[in-house]
Amino acid sequence: MTKRVEGARPELGTTRLRGAEGPARSPYGKPVIKEPVWTPEIPAYFYVGGLAGASAPLALLSAWRGERGIAKRAWLTAAAGSVVSPVLLISDLGVPVRFLNMLRMFKLTSPMSVGSWILVGFGTATAPATLHALTDRKLLPRPLGDAAQVGSALLGIPLASYTAALIGNTSIPVWHEARHDLPFVFTAGAATSAGAMATMLSPVGEAQAARRLAVAGAAAELGLVALMKRRLKARGVAGAYHEGRARWYSHAGLALTAAGGAIVAARGARDRRAAIAGGALLSAGAVAERLAIFRAGFRSAARPQDTVAPQRRRIDAGQRPGAARTTPHQPAAPQPGGALDARRPGEREVTPGSPAIGPS
């Protein structure tokens, strides 16, 4: 039995975490990684960016179907979101020039760089696209206005989902382990938000497409979130969604989205007040779900077992090499005669086959 020296640093893997699942351990039982430094403006940007990004394709498709009223309202929503989104990002960065610095280069391997350019391109295309729709395609040359609308709709799709790739590219376990699921969750939530907003702003007779988008998006979001959490549980990192504020936001998002979708599907086509109430519940549910994902990241960073357990599981399965020593350290064999070799490296004999000996 090894005697523990008071105050000595424990070896990696010898300190069991309180409340850890399975064999997860960490030196001192402390968090292994730092929590995110993002401010509350970021989950607001998740919602606003997704709302704007999904509203542009909705507006374009509605215009192609001849539904000019809902198309104009959706373009206005997209334009408002394209203005508010940079404001939220700049507020999180603290200094406006930092946002401009992100545009100094374009790096495909950086979700932050790609997302910044998508946001700028979306705003640049959405402004003339909205003007083209509000003036009934009379102010701008038709080819220019049509191209702006198509460009805005195409850029809106990645705008609605790139933030999922952004957080999935971090070291936060609950985000990184869900990196393949989050883009679909964010896209479904964006569709729900766009459909809910158009449902609230449009008369009942003009909002059929918006109601369908809202209900379909809500159903998809509920299913995708459940699937994501099931996969996280299988990987041992789902506990962050069951602790602290992330738990309450997660429950609220589930309840609000389910209730709003049911109201819109059951009474949204007949009752204007029900359509507004259902749309408001769906919007609140989308915000709550973004907050749940955001707060779960903070909680996961504070749980060392979320960082250690997946690594140990991959090491045990042979998927990754382990760096921790699992056997006691063996001291070097003594030199002949029991004395240490005091010769410098250049004075020592080189054994046959050593890389230091060139071919003869």
Labels describing this entry:
360 residues, mainly alpha
Write a short abstract of this structure.
With 360 residues, this protein is mainly alpha-helical. It has helices at residues 41-64, 68-93, 96-101, 111-134, 142-168, 173-176, 182-201, 208-234, 244-267, 272-301, 304-316. The protein starts with 40 loop residues before the first helix and ends in a 44-residue tail after the last helix.
What is the CA–CA distance across the termini? 52 Å
Given the helix and strand composition, which structural class is it? mainly alpha
Hey, roughly how much beta strand do the residues contain?
under 5%
Strand count, sense and barrel status of the largest sheet are: none
Shape: globular
Mean pLDDT: 83
Structural commentary:
The chain has 360 residues and is mainly α. Helices cover 62% and strands 0% of the residues. Helix 1 (41-64) packs antiparallel against helix 2 (68-93) and helix 1 crosses helix 7 (182-201). Mean pLDDT is 83; it is low at 1-24.
Note the topology.
Elements: H1 41-64, H2 68-93, H3 96-101, H4 111-134, H5 142-168, H6 173-176, H7 182-201, H8 208-234, H9 244-267, H10 272-301, H11 304-316
Helix pairs in contact: 1-2, 1-5, 1-7, 1-10, 2-4, 2-7, 4-5, 5-7, 7-8, 7-10, 8-9, 9-10
